[in-house]
């Protein structure tokens, strides 16, 4: 395919033909798409471009949904904690929820399916001790214990799709009806979904690619009484939980799930919680069901001679592209939103499809494209952060979404994206199918492993929070680094040991979370396996509170490897004399500014004089290294994403792997620049990852040095001799 055309998808809308043709030509787009809130008219569909049509399986069909409200998507929600002052307590269980989004389920007997819990003594209140008033959506407990707190776990019907609700509010869609989502597990809904898709395929012969957005179950997104996001978990299975699903689960697995297994103290099994065996069983149950039903729809698309694409967002729950059932669906492609390097790799590393596509930012919505704002700022940042990852593992296509008519009002933006699309095609032509040079192989170790590859530390897709950005920076740094990255779970290590080709393991996260591991570290087999592996030459990097659980007189269970532990107050009577930091170290050789550890961790101390303290301030260790037999451990208090911290992590990995001598192979000495080499096609590229001119020394595959000047955002391609 020509490098001046192709691999780009353009959003368009009715009555915008002339401008669409212009942008198609300038951006070299070979496909057009609609978006939520837009339609393509016949003139647009007649253009020389593939037509992507958004298809909603379980929303956007209100004629059906409104006559089958008993088959709406259900959820289990938990009320606020309510304090009993006397022996009678009345709870407004919908207090704090948006009543245009959810309504209580009274079709099924609350006494049988709901759960009232005394949270103070963690006991279930028997159903004969409470009553429900359907007129006021309230529940009254008799024989309550004064000054105990109580919650109600209750079923609701979701009567407004969360994504449409978000778009409705963002774009002020006053006259647009609320999309009512329905559950494909229900008999009428299952039959309707297949029948409706068959009819739609016949009625839309101009569609080349059916873009499922997505299939059946939305990620958990619940709004509060002010129509603002109350709870959002991009990985949440909350909208899959129906009474029918729980009954079928019990029949298949031989045991029943409690409401508490789903609401989980009000945490709703967020991805940060260490998953229970029961919740993992439920996830697997949903994944198999989704794969089976999605396959039926994909086969209908294929039978009509079209391609089937899945949007990795909105109703994606249960598809799990790194799970064991994804390939069964038979999709042609996956498209997802690109927030940076990690989310680019989340899409591009998916196997089992013919092609992958990234939807880049900004979305062409009025919250970005308004008078006085410069959308190029976000576009440049988005492209530069994703471009690093594309150099390692490119998506096959890129595109944008939203209202093209909005973006068209910003000529500078149109000019910039023209450069982006040309550059993407150039990169793709050089690196697709090539194995990039990797100096070290790293495994990220957490509770989720491969299932959530490139998805750790996310609460909402590509967004960071105060408690997470110190860890998400690890993935963002690795996404475009000359490092091969894989993901392992604690079960993988326990059952199979450490893969022989892994050089370094990284365990990072707050204590008690799925990413640090919590109680998993009380397993002696896990701990001894890792100790033996490091002792015999492996490298272990701990970030934040790695291997953290109070057990056996340690908080960090691998403190002996890391050379540090955290003071919880129990050993304050024991003096800690080791506070002197080294004046220089391989890990910090490139540090030009004060090190940034993000939220960092307090009260970290060195265990002995053998610990190499690299950074010590405020009476605590933030960066350290430690010899452990033939291997090494490295401790970092936090790693928010920056070019400085990317280099810090790279040096830590090489040091832990005992490969310092190889560090200056395909490397630069300017932190704003990177080298990516492709030995098979004898090419390498030097990137300027900033929007400013940079000068750098570049080290080739033999460590030989040359000096270069790179223009803002420039890539220089060279031949390997």
TrEMBL record:
Q: Which residues form the Lacto-N-biose phosphorylase C-terminal domain?
A: 666-717
- Enzyme's top EC category: transferase
Q: What keywords are annotated for this sequence in UniProt?
A: Glycosyltransferase, Lyase, Transferase
UniProt KW Phosphoprotein keyword: no
MF-aspect GO terms: 1,3-beta-galactosyl-N-acetylhexosamine phosphorylase activity; lyase activity
Span of domain Lacto-N-biose phosphorylase central: 441-660
E.C. code? 2.4.1.211
* Ranges for domain Lacto-N-biose phosphorylase-like N-terminal TIM barrel: 6-438
Q: Which InterPro entries match?
A: Class_I_gatase-like, Glyco_hydro_b, Ig-like_fold, Lact_bio_phlase-like_N, Lacto-N-biose_phosphorylase, LBP_C, LBP_M
Q: What is this protein called?
A: 1,3-beta-galactosyl-N-acetylhexosamine phosphorylase
Species, as recorded:
Ohessyouella blattaphilus
């Amino acid at each position: 395919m020509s490098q001046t055309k192709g691999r780009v998808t353009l959003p368009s809308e009715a009555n915008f033909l002339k401008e669409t043709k212009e942008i198609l030509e300038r951006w070299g787009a070979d496909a057009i798409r609609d978006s939520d809130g837009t339609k393509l008219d016949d003139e647009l569909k007649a253009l020389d471009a593939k037509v992507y049509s958004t298809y909603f399986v379980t929303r956007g069909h209100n004629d059906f949904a409104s006559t089958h409200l008993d088959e709406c998507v259900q959820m289990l929600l938990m009320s606020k904690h309510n304090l009993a002052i006397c022996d009678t307590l009345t709870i407004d269980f919908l207090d704090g929820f948006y009543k245009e989004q959810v309504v209580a389920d009274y079709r099924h007997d609350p006494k049988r399916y709901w759960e009232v819990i005394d949270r103070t003594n963690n006991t279930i209140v028997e159903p004969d001790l409470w009553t429900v008033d359907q007129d006021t959506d309230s529940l009254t407990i008799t024989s309550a214990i004064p000054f105990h707190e109580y919650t109600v776990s209750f079923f609701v019907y979701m009567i407004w799709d969360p994504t449409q609700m978000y778009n409705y509010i963002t774009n002020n869609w006053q006259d647009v009806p609320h999309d009512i989502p329905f559950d494909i597990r229900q008999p009428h809904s299952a039959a309707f979904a297949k029948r409706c898709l068959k009819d739609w395929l016949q009625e839309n012969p101009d569609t080349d690619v059916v873009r499922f957005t997505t299939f059946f179950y939305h990620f958990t997104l619940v709004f509060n009484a002010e129509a603002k996001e109350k709870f959002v978990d991009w990985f949440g299975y909350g909208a899959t939980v129906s009474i029918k699903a729980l009954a079928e689960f019990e029949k298949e697995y031989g045991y029943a799930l409690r409401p508490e297994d789903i609401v989980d103290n009000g945490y709703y099994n967020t991805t940060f919680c260490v998953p229970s065996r029961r919740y993992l069983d439920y996830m697997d149950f949903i994944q198999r069901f989704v794969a089976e039903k999605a396959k039926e729809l994909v086969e209908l698309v294929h039978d009509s001679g079209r391609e089937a694409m899945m949007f990795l967002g909105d109703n994606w729950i249960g598809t799990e592209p790194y799970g064991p059932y994804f390939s069964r669906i038979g999709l042609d492609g996956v498209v997802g939103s690109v927030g940076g390097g990690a989310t680019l790799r989340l899409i591009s590393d998916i196997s089992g499809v013919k092609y992958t596509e990234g939807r880049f930012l900004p979305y062409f919505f009025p919250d970005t494209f308004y008078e006085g704002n410069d959308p190029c700022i976000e576009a440049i940042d988005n492209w530069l952060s994703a471009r690093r990852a594309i150099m390692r593992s490119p998506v096959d296509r890129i595109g944008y979404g939203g209202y093209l008519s909005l973006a068209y009002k910003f000529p500078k933006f149109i000019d910039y994206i023209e450069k982006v699309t040309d550059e993407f095609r150039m990169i793709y032509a050089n690196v697709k199918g090539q194995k990039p040079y990797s100096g070290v192989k790293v495994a990220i170790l957490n509770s989720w492993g491969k299932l959530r590859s490139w998805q750790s530390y996310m609460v909402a897709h590509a967004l960071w929070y105060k408690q997470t950005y110190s860890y998400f920076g690890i993935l963002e740094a690795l996404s475009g680094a000359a490092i091969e990255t894989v993901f392992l779970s604690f079960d993988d290590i326990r059952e199979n040991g450490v893969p022989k080709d892994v050089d370094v393991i990284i365990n990072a996260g707050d204590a008690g979370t799925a990413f640090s591991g919590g109680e998993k570290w009380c397993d002696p087999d896990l701990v001894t396996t890792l100790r033996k592996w490091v002792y015999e030459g492996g490298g272990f990097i701990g970030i934040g509170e790695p291997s953290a659980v109070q057990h056996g007189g340690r908080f960090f269970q691998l403190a002996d490897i890391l050379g540090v532990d955290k003071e919880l107050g129990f050993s304050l009577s024991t003096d800690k004399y080791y506070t002197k930091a080294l004046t220089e170290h391989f890990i910090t050789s490139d540090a030009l500014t004060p090190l940034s550890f993000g939220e960092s961790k307090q009260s970290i101390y060195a265990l002995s004089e053998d610990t190499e303290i690299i950074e010590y301030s405020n009476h605590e260790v933030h960066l350290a290294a430690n010899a452990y037999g033939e291997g090494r451990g490295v401790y970092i208090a936090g790693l928010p994403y920056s070019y400085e911290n990317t280099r810090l992590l790279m040096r830590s990995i090489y040091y832990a792997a005992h490969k310092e001598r190889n560090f200056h192979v395909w490397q630069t000495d300017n932190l704003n620049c990177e080298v990516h080499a492709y030995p098979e096609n004898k090419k390498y590229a030097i990137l300027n990852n900033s929007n400013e001119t940079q000068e750098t020394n570049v080290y080739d595959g033999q460590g030989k040095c040359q000096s270069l000047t790179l223009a803002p955002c420039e890539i220089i391609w060279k031949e390997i001799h």
